[in-house]
Amino acid sequence: MESPKKKIAVMTSGGDSPGMNGIVRAVVRMAIHLGCDAYCVYEGYEGLVQGGKYIRQMEWHEVRGWLSEGGTLIGTARCKAFFERAGRLVAAKNMILNGIDALIIAGGDGSLTGADKFRSEWPGLVEELVATGQLTAEQVEPYKHLNIVGIVGSIDNDMSGTDATVGAYSALSRVCEMVDYIEATAYSHSRAFVIEVMGRHCGWLALMSGVATGADFIFIPERPRSDDWQAEMCSTVRRHRKLGKRKTIVIIAEGAIDKEGNKITANEVKDLLADPEGLKLDTRVTTLGHVQRGGTAVAYDRMLSTLQGVEAVKAVLEATPETPTCFIAINENKIVRKNLMEAVRDTKEVANAVMAKDFAKAMDLRDHEFLDQYKSYIMSTNVHLEDGEKVADADKMRIAFINVGAPAGGMNAAIRAGVAYCLSRGHEPIAIHNGFAGLARHHADAPLGAVRSFDWLEVDGWASKGGSEIGTNRELPADSGMEIIANLVEEYRFDALFLIGGFEAFHAVSQLRQARDEFPSLCIPMCILPATISNNVPGTEYSLGSDTCLNELVNYCDKIKQSASATRRRVFVIETQGGKSGYIATLAGLGVGASAVYTPEEGITLDMLAADVNHLKDVFKKDRGQSRAGRLLLVNEKASKVYTAKLIADIIREEANERFESRDSIPGHVQQGGVPSPMDRCRAVRLAIKCIQHIESFGRRAQNKVKHDPYSTVVIGIKGASVVFTPMAELEATDTDWPNRRPISSHWAGLRDIVDILGGRPPYPKPERKLSGVRAKDMKRGLDHMSVE
Ligand code: ADP
After folding, report:
1. Are 539 and 717 a contacting pair, CB within 8 Å?
2. Catalytic-residue membership of 455
3. Which residue, among 622, 634, 534, 630, has the nearest Cα to 588 in the 3D structure?
4. Atom 20 (ligand 1) nearest CA
5. Residue 647: alpha-carbon gap to chain centroid
6. For atom 16 of ligand 1, which residue has the closest CA?
7. 243, 351, 438, 612: which one has the fewest Cβ atoms less than 10 Å from its Cβ?
8. Ligand 1 center to 205 CA (angstroms)
9. C-beta of 593 in contact with ligand 1 (< 6 A)
10. What is the pLDDT of residues 330-351, one digit of tens each?
11. In the chain, what are the domains?
12. Model's pTM, two decimal places?
C-alpha cells in the first residue's frame, strides 16, 4: 500500500513583514512539488488553537501572484492562549486531528520562542491527550515527534544567528526612502531632523539607515554612546556644521537608551539640537511608525523568502526524531539551517545584556555583519580631519579612486566611505575622473583636470546618490596606452589604486598586473570593489548595483503584470540586461514568479520554446480567471542572437491562436536604477572601507614587496558566508570565462531549477551544452581573442 501523502503546514505569526507571502507561496508549491499536501494555518497560533476552518489545504494556483503582495495574506494574530499550556494542548490536538506532519512557522523571535516551547513540550502534550481520552494511542502514534522549522519574518532583523530576516530589507528601504525625502527639505531650510525608527531591542534599522544615508548621529540600544552622549552628539553635529554641512540628520531607534539604561527620546534629542544656548538648530522630529511595515517586498526579501521556504520544506522532510529543531538563516550569501533553540536563547541574551547594561556582550551576540556595519558607520561618518587616529607620516598614502565600466548603484557610496576613511587615517584620497580614458587624455585639462584630491564636504552628500559622480568609462588601460598610464601613476605618485566597477575593472587590473614587469610604477597595491548590475565579476557572488537593478526589474515586472488585468490573458516577454550573465534575469524571475527564464548560459532552442508555448496554451486552457495578472517570461539580452524578446512574443502570439495575447517589453537602462538600494549603499560602505584597509596594509612605496605578493592585486567579494579578498592571478587562471566575460562557475546556477519549479514550468528539452565556460588551458587563447565592447 502506498503511504499517505505527508501534510506540511505553514503559518505566519507575530508582527507582519513584507515577504511573508513569498514564504507561504514557496512552502505551498515546494511541498506540492515534492508530493506532499500543503496546508495553511490562518491567523497564526490563534488558528492552530481554533482549528476547523483555520487549517486549510492549499492548491498550487491559490498562491499565484503572492510574491507581489505586502503583509501576510493568511493573517497573523497575537494569541494569548498559546502562552498557556492549555492553549498549546488544544493546538497539539488540532494538529493531530488534521494529520499535520510538519509545521513551518514564519515569525519573529516571540513566535519562534513559542514554537520552541511547543516543541519541547510536545511529548508531554501528546501523552496528556491520550491520558485524558481526547485522542487514542493509535491516533497519536504517527505524531510522536513534532516536526517544526522556523523562518524569521521580522522587520527588526532581531534574530541572532542570521544576517537578515525576511522583511528587514524592505523595511530598511522604506526608512531610507523617507530619510532621503526628509534630507531634501532639511537641506533647503538648513534644518535638523530627528527620525525615530522601529526597533525595541534591536538597532539594526537605525544602524543600517544611518550607514545608508550618512546620518550625522545614531542611537541604538546595543551600543549607547559615551557617558555624556549629549556632549558627544552636539560636538559631532557642531563639527559637521563647521565643515559646511547644511543639514543634520539624527536617527534614533525606538529602544534607544543611555549607558545607565535610561530611555533616550526623540524629543530630548530635538531639545538639545534646538537649545538656544547651544546649537540653535531649527529641529523637527519625525516618527516613521507603521509605514516601515508597509508595501511590497523588495527583491532581496522575495529571494530570501522563496529560498528559505524551499529550504524549510526540505528540512522538514529530512528531519528525523534525532535532528535538533532548526530555523533557516542566511549568512552573507548562504542559506543555512541553524539550531532554533540556540538562536532563541542568544536573541533573549541580547535583550538581557542590554537590560543588564552589558553592552559589549550585546554587540557580541549580534551577528558579525552588525558589528562590522557599526564600525563602518563610525568610520564613514565620524570623520576627524584634524585629530583622530592617524597613521605615521611615513605611512600616509596617496590613494587613487577610479570607476571603470557602466555606472552601478552604490559606486558613490563606496567612494564617500573610502574617502572618509582615508581622511580619518591621514591618507590622501585622489579622484580620477572618467576612468582610464579620463586619466590618459584629460589629466592636464584646466581648470580641474581629471586628477584631483577629494574634499570631504563634496563627497559627504553622496551616500544615496545614483550614477557615478566622478564619471566612469569602459576603456581599458591597454587601449588608453599602458605606457601613458604607467607614467601618470608615477607622475602623480599614486601609492595605490582603488577601482570600483564591473568586468572592465577586472580586465583593467589584469592588464595592469601583467604589465608590471615592463612598468615598475605599476607595482602598487590595486583593489577592485565589484560594481555592476550584471554581477559577473569573478571572485564575488555579489556586486554593488545588482540589488538596485533587481529592485527596478521586479517593480517594472509587477507593473507590467498588473497592466494585463483588463484583458486577463496576456503573456509578457521582458528583455533584461546582464551581458552574458543570466544572473539578473534569473533572480528577477525568482522575485516575480516568472513562467520561464532564458539565460545566455543555457541558450534558447526551438524545442525549448515549443515546450514553453505548449505549456502556456495548457495554462490558459485551464485558467478560470482566478488571477487577472499577466504571465511573465524573462529573456536576457544575450540569451540568443536569433530568439529575441520580440521574436519570442511574436511566436507566442502566432501560436496562441487568439486564445491569449503576448507583448514584448524592454526596460533598458531603467535597470541601472535611480536611487541605489540601501543594501547596495550599506555594502558599499562596508566593503570600501575593507578595501582601503587592505591597501593600507601594504604601506607606502612598497614596490618590491608588492610585486611578489599575490594579494597586491585583489578582488573583494562575498563568497558563501564570508567576505574575502581573492588574488587576481588566481581568478584569472581558474575562474574567468574571458570570451563570455563572466566567472566560469556561476554560484546562482542552482536557482534556475527553483524558478522553474515554483513557476510551474514543466521539464523542457535542455539545449545541448553550450560552451558555457572555457577550460583553464583555453584561457590564454580566449584572452587574445577577446573583443572589448
Ligand atoms: P513576534 O513573533 O513578531 O516577535 P510576538 O512576540 O507578538 O511577535 O509573538 C507572536 C505570538 O507568538 C504570540 O501572540 C504568542 O501566541 C506566541 N508566543 C510568543 N512568545 C511566546 C512564548 N514565550 N510562549 C508561547 N507562545 C509565545
Report:
1. yes
2. no
3. 634
4. 110
5. 33
6. 79
7. 243
8. 21
9. no
10. 987 889 999 999 999 998 898 8
11. 7-165+297-349 (3.40.50.450), 169-293 (3.40.50.460), 393-544+676-739+776-788 (3.40.50.450), 546-674+752-759 (3.40.50.460)
12. 0.93
